[in-house]
Amino acid sequence: MKEKILTFDDVKLIYHTARGETVATEHLSFSVEEGEFVAIIGPSGCGKSTLLSLAAGLLSPSEGSVRCLGSIGYMLQRDELFLWRTIEKNIFLPLEIKKIGSEETRKRARELAIKYGLGDFLDSYPSQLSGGMRQRAALIRTLAAEPDVLLLDEPFSALDYQTRLNVTKDVSDIIRSEGKTALLITHDISEAISLADRVIVLTARPAHVAHTHILGFSETDPLRRRENQQFSGWFELLWKELNV
Question: What is the rounded distance in angstroms from the CA atom of residue 198 to the CA atom of residue 91?
């Protein structure tokens, strides 16, 4: 049995504002196993992104606990590459921030970039790359510091549909090839089905887990999953659960 690397245990989060209190989550419990790819979907405004802030330690629960047994890498909705730095220097950024920029760690980051198709673009600037290539660079930057858990906050939402499909496959291939644990927040049901091993469905605010589904696809390729006969069945079920 694989180890649970990330655990939410009966989490309640209350936001305090000048207008009063807002309960964002209540009795929220789930876990993510090492090497698992989990997607979380829920109604608009239910606080999906709040879960990533809790997982990353940016927020503390009002009640309950969040435990992570490893280091965290956070991939945002936009690539957030620094325009004045080359792709290579963008990829080295987390190594500089964490003060682990040895020749060995820089070499590994460079090798990751080459392995996943960015070798010819290390001296280029973000403005010279397509949106898909920039997002791939953002993922390599996140992986450069060797996190144990990747938190993905709707990382494809800023891309056009065709680019989004291609980048989804790129990101999936890289994460699975590197054996990383991933927690994806998305509003896109198709995206969740095409990427995840397991999908967690949240209720409206205050959010808690309404349903959990192990998808059971034999393939991990997101594009092939969309062609699988099971895909439409999962879509219909998840759509109904989100719209009860």
Answer: 30
